[in-house]
Amino acid sequence: MPLSRSQPGADRCVLYVSCFARLPPQRRLSALPPCVAQLDGLALLDVGLNRLATLPPGPYLRSLRCLVARGNALRTLPPALVEAQQLEALDLGENEE
């Protein structure tokens, strides 16, 4: 897959390939970067092993087919996931209780 260029103003630490976004699992993210939430056409998002307590609404959810949010601080299903009408696979294992 060809590398996509970052959108203007996008966080430089986020790399994505075509329709795939994987954020570094460094337990540093407590919120999804706005540049990721604004991605349109995203099919797979891996935000595992961070500190996310929720996920924001945004264009990234419309085409999302696979979400990996394992090992975060999610206590309930994020309400924004109702927008993910194409979602086929969801991994929310090992979240904090």
- Helix residue percentage: under 10%
Mean pLDDT: 79
Write out the strand line-up for the largest beta sheet, numbering strands in chain order: 1-2-3-4-5
Cα end-to-end separation:
37 Å
Uncertain regions spanning at least 5 consecutive residues: 1-18
Number of helices: 1
Order of helices and strands: EEHEEE
Largest sheet: 5 strands, mixed
What is the subunit arrangement here?
single chain
Number of strands: 5
- Tell me the overall shape: globular
Secondary structure class reads mainly beta
Q: How much β-strand is present in the residues?
A: 5-15%
Radius of gyration from CA coordinates? 12 Å
Characterization of this structure:
- By secondary structure, this protein is mainly beta.
- It is built from one helix and five strands.
- Strands 1-2-3-4-5 form a five-stranded mixed β-sheet, with no helix packed on it.
- The longest helix has 4 residues.
- The protein starts with 15 loop residues before the first strand and ends in a 6-residue tail after the last strand.
Q: Could you list some keywords that capture this structure?
A:
globular; five-stranded mixed sheet; 4% helix; 97 residues; mainly beta; disordered N terminus; 5 strands
Set out the fold topology.
Elements (H helix, E strand, L loop, with lengths): L15 E2 L2 E3 L11 H4 L6 E3 L19 E3 L20 E3 L6
Parallel strand pairs: 2-3, 3-4, 4-5
Antiparallel strand pairs: 1-2
